[in-house]
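We now fix the convention by which a protein and its fold are recorded. Here is one such record, which you should read through line by line:

>
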Amino acid sequence: MPQITIYHNPRCSKSRCALGILQDKGAQLTIVEYLKTPPTALELADICKKLNVAPTAIIRSNETLFKTLGLSLDNDRSPEDWFRILADNPKLIERPIIVKGNRAVIGRPPENALELL
């Protein structure tokens, strides 16, 4: 069975719940605490490809940091610009993101993790 990677924030209840679901199912996991070990812009591009979404779909636009940086989802930025912003500011990345092989899901709701099992 391919390894599952969860981009996890232990302070987030949804992230903890998704992790618990995967652990309860006996999934072989790699846990990446993305605030301590942020994904690179290239890794974020790969994740979005697996999610089949634009980078703006994984942005936590309600975070104070988003407003502090003067960002808007209406900004005319390239995907590469968004990936760089997210890599530089991992607090803005939606959580959790769960990846297995060529597929990925956002764990909101946490039960979305089951789609990869």
